[in-house]
Amino acid sequence: MVQAYHAVPVSVEYEDADNGRPTDHEGSALLGSGTSGVGIAKSEVQKEGHATLTSSVGNLANTIIGSGMLTFPRALASSGIIPGMLTCAFCGAVSAFSLYLLSTCGRHAPHRRSSFFAIATLTFPRAAVFFDAAIAIKCFGVSISYLIIIKSLLPNVVASLYHDLSSPDTNPPAWALSGRIWISLVMVVLVPLSYLRRLDSLRHTSYIALFSCAYLVLIVVLCYFRPIEGMTPPGEVHLIKFTPSFLSTFPIQVFAFTCAQNLFPIYNELKSNSQKRMNIVIGTAIGSTTLTYEIIAVFGYLTFGSHVSANIIAMYPSTSLFIAVGQLAIAILVIFSYPLQVHPCRNCLDKVFHFESA
Fold it and tell me: Which ranges carry the Amino acid transporter transmembrane domain (predicted)?
């Protein structure tokens, strides 16, 4: 129906969610001004996603992988190699299935406006704001923990690199060992990254973080075949041996696959976001991270046995430049994981603050 330009309709006509649904414009909220599931006005211009499979897999994998992977050898020590590998694979499979269910639910939301708020509005409209509030609090807590890790880790990394590159008897200047200075310098980089509108804009930092993760895998594997002088001697290795600490290490494996907060942004931004392409993104990201966890867990446990600690990288002597660079890689991994927590936190807070108008 064609309307005159001077006519102002009382109600706006909407298109169906599966037939050429338009999306938001740059002036709207992060996830749109009305993601309640009823539809988007026809007058808006349709805007498709531009993210590739590679960038989507990179961002999702970087969301999954964090400093928690350093505890996986300890998880194997608490149960044995076989149960530890099975529980890791089980957690990955459950996480992949949950992401598949979320992507399926996303198809019922307005076109490229999928979010937890939009899905919750279709099921529990009055409680939708509480879902986003819970996710925002969770992401905020994780991002703060990343900053704490960065503040405590970078001075040690600087000290190790300084000793390895100069002389063991030479200490770095006092300012270089100040956690406050380093966290301030890091925030100069993180603040602009945290304000990027699209998750796909973080693809390059995700690639750097994943490269850092690959370097850590290289350290664990090479140090098993060629131990470094000064390493802790290995303890007993068991195929199956459950200990009381298994009750505390199993939840670590479960939460190591947490990434659902970024599933909907990836789904919205992926070019041709069919279920088949989403399955490729989910399967590749979960599969690669599961393999990474398994390699670090098995080789780390075989290297130190029952003597392995909760932080595998701390078991290697930092007197080696090879290990010192690995500590720097952990810092880089954590630094570039921070924006991936801030982005969903912003999205959820946006819906909380605009709840009355949504």
Answer: 51-355
Give the count of beta carbons closer than 10 Å to the beta carbon of residue 120. Answer: 21
Is the distance from CB of 259 to CB of 289 less than 8 angstroms? no
Find the domain containing 309 and state its range: 53-353
Residue matched to tokens 């029952």: 306
Q: Are 112 and 21 in contact (CB under 8 A)?
A: yes
In a domain, 228, yes or no: yes
Q: What is the dihedral of CA 227, 232, 233, 235, to 10 degrees?
A: -120
Distance between CA atoms of 113 and 132, rounded to whole angstroms? Answer: 15
How many domains is the chain partitioned into structurally?
1
* 253-310 pLDDT per residue, tens: 999 999 999 999 999 999 999 999 999 999 999 999 999 999 999 999 999 999 999 8
| CA atoms within a 13 Å half-sphere pointing along the CA-CB vector of 245 | 17
Query: Contact, 14 vs 38, CB < 8 A?
Result: yes
The answer to whether residue 34 is domain-embedded is: no
Query: Is 164 part of any domain?
Result: yes
Enumerate residues 6+ apart whose C-beta is below 8 A from 184: none
**For the whole prediction, is pTM greater than 0.90?**
no
In sequence order, the 6+-apart residues with CB closer than 8 A to the CB of 207 are 58
The set of long-range contacts for 185-188, using a CB threshold of 8 Å and a minimum separation of 24, is: 186/150, 186/154, 186/335
Phi, psi of 247 (to 5 degrees): -65, -25
- SS3 at position 324: helix
Asked if residue 84 belongs to a domain, the reply is: yes
CATH number of residue 78's parent domain: 1.20.1740.10
Going by the DSSP 8-state scheme, the letter that residue 274 receives in this structure is -
Nearest to 304 by CA among 235, 231, 217: 235
